[in-house]
Specification:
alpha+beta, elongated, five-stranded mixed beta sheet
């Protein structure tokens, strides 16, 4: 089968963008405009490489160098992503650092071909690897940096970060009581506990538990979204919660993790009402 000819202008545009991206990563992934810059560069890379025709046939063998294998990108925001929105809609924990490193490795390998004068092999490598390699990471990172750019913190007169989004949110419901049987709570709520124990069971360290506990936890990034997902799993039957609270002690814990000294978040009235229905609500803030 004859290969579809490559547009050399599109291919050279990919090379220019790849060189800029690799220089950014090799320079410590630092830029005054942060996520805004990365979002723009990733968007250009994705749209430009898709101007190249699909690559068929074997690709040039381009080993990963020790530098490309070991390069560490400074810490970026953790986030959650969907692996396959059509077949696996569940979200998983993801790292922007890992995504940028994946993109860098394939772009750098193609650049080595390009700089050796093997332009068509470089174009084919970038195009094929976009479909089965760096493309997925680039698209996931684009979405993450898009949201990060929207919620980017401002800078006050002293040069300190002000505002911006929370990096991680953890919401837990704990039900406690001396006579509590976790299996009964699971049957009553129709939800399995994240962790549980009965009174008298040994602790991991020393001693035994003074009372039983049933604890359900949900994790994510945006507080409002995590709280909504948390509440959707639990039954909305108010009499059921009234009965549980009459017999046991309940508490909802909302833990917020962020970098910098100031971040903000909001919860709508429905989320607040839903949490209040479950019991006392406590908030814990953890700043790095």
């Amino acid at each position: 089968m004859a290969r579809e000819p490559f547009d050399p202008d599109a291919g050279r545009s990919v090379a220019e963008l790849a060189r800029e991206f690799c220089a950014f990563v090799e320079g410590g992934a630092s830029h005054p405009n942060g996520h805004v810059f990365v979002r723009s560069l990733l968007a250009e890379l994705i749209t430009t490489v898709l101007r190249l025709p699909p690559a068929t046939g074997p690709l040039a063998n381009v080993p990963i160098t020790p530098l490309e294998r070991s390069l560490l990108v400074p810490s970026h925001d953790a986030y959650r992503k969907v692996l396959d929105p059509l077949r696996m809609p569940e979200t998983i924990a993801a790292s922007l650092t890992d995504d940028l490193r994946d993109v860098y490795r394939d772009l750098a390998r193609g650049l080595r071909l390009f700089d050796q004068g093997d332009e068509e092999d470089a174009f084919r490598f970038w195009r094929r690897r976009f479909d089965d390699g760096w493309g997925d990471s680039a698209i996931a990172a684009l979405r993450a940096t898009h949201h990060a750019a929207i919620a980017a913190p401002t800078v006050d007169a002293q040069g300190a970060d002000v505002g911006g989004q929370i990096d991680e949110t953890r919401v837990s419901l704990g039900i406690y009581g001396a006579s509590l049987n976790p299996d009964e709570i699971t049957a009553q709520l129709g939800v399995s506990a994240t962790r549980s124990h009965r009174a008298g069971q040994p602790k991991r360290s020393q001693g035994t538990w003074d009372e039983g506990a049933w604890i359900y936890t949900r994790e994510g990034v945006v507080p409002g979204e995590v709280v909504r997902a948390f509440l959707e799993v639990l039954p909305a039957d108010t009499p059921a919660w009234t009965a549980i609270r009459a017999r046991y002690r309940t508490r909802v814990s909302v833990a917020l993790f962020f970098r910098g000294w100031h971040r903000g978040f909001s919860l709508d009235a429905d989320a607040l009402d839903g949490l209040r229905r479950l019991g006392d609500v406590g908030f814990s803030l953890y700043a790095e």
